[in-house]
């Protein structure tokens, strides 16, 4: 009975911590790392500063946890999305279109992209987390392009590595373009061009 109670309490603590992490992530997403104060974070998490320090750590450790959770969830969602298509080229096209929708219609721009520009140059731990997600995404794109070549959905002489790298980096460019120009037609035009290139 005592062991069961301890296990239940541990699950409740973990659940509450995950909920608090999600709330902190929303603050970082909206204000960025440097713009978010400890007061902003603890108010959103509905905990006092001592509870934060005792369970997770300081602001940087909290952010590391948030960006790690975010990138893991995003990588998993991308894998799940791709697995829903029998055609590799259709999976890639759907991923491209979903990326455009996210850029143009989400209330917040990609947290990973924002973090890349704000922290990745100077923070090696953040850089490592973002690199890991980028590597996973590149590997997924590469596997889809290679499968599309095997299934004759792309020409046999297609440079799979270059196409996978090009798609991955195009998303970052489109995010930056929309942040700067707020021109939806411009992003859609670039996406249409990319789809035409991989579909020809």
TrEMBL record:
<feature type="DNA-binding region" description="H-T-H motif">
    <location>
        <begin position="37"/>
        <end position="56"/>
    </location>
</feature>
<protein>
    <submittedName>
        <fullName>TetR family transcriptional regulator</fullName>
    </submittedName>
</protein>
<dbReference type="Pfam" id="PF16925">
    <property type="entry name" value="TetR_C_13"/>
</dbReference>
<keyword id="KW-0238">DNA-binding</keyword>
<dbReference type="InterPro" id="IPR009057">
    <property type="entry name" value="Homeodomain-like_sf"/>
</dbReference>
<dbReference type="InterPro" id="IPR036271">
    <property type="entry name" value="Tet_transcr_reg_TetR-rel_C_sf"/>
</dbReference>
<dbReference type="InterPro" id="IPR001647">
    <property type="entry name" value="HTH_TetR"/>
</dbReference>
<dbReference type="InterPro" id="IPR011075">
    <property type="entry name" value="TetR_C"/>
</dbReference>
<keyword id="KW-0805">Transcription regulation</keyword>
<feature type="domain" description="HTH tetR-type">
    <location>
        <begin position="14"/>
        <end position="74"/>
    </location>
</feature>
<dbReference type="Pfam" id="PF00440">
    <property type="entry name" value="TetR_N"/>
</dbReference>
<keyword id="KW-0804">Transcription</keyword>
């Amino acid at each position: 009975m005592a062991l069961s109670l301890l296990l239940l309490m541990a699950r409740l603590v973990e659940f509450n911590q995950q909920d608090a992490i999600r709330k902190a992530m929303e603050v970082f997403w909206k204000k960025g790392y440097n713009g978010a104060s400890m007061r902003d974070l603890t108010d959103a998490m509905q905990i006092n500063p001592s509870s934060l320090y005792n369970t997770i750590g300081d602001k940087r450790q909290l952010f590391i946890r948030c960006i790690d959770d975010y990138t893991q969830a995003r990588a998993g969602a991308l894998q799940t999305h791709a697995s829903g298509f029998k055609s590799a080229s259709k999976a890639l096209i759907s991923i491209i279109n979903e990326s455009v929708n996210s850029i143009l219609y989400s209330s917040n721009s990609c947290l990973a992209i924002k973090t890349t520009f704000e922290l990745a140059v100077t923070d090696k731990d953040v850089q490592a987390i973002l690199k890991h997600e980028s590597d996973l995404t590149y590997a997924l794109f590469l596997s889809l392009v290679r499968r599309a070549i095997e299934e004759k959905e792309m020409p046999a002489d297609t440079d799979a590595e270059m196409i996978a790298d090009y798609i991955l980096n195009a998303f970052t460019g489109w995010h930056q373009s929309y942040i700067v120009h707020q021109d939806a037609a411009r992003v859609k035009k670039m996406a249409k061009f990319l789809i035409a290139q991989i579909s020809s």
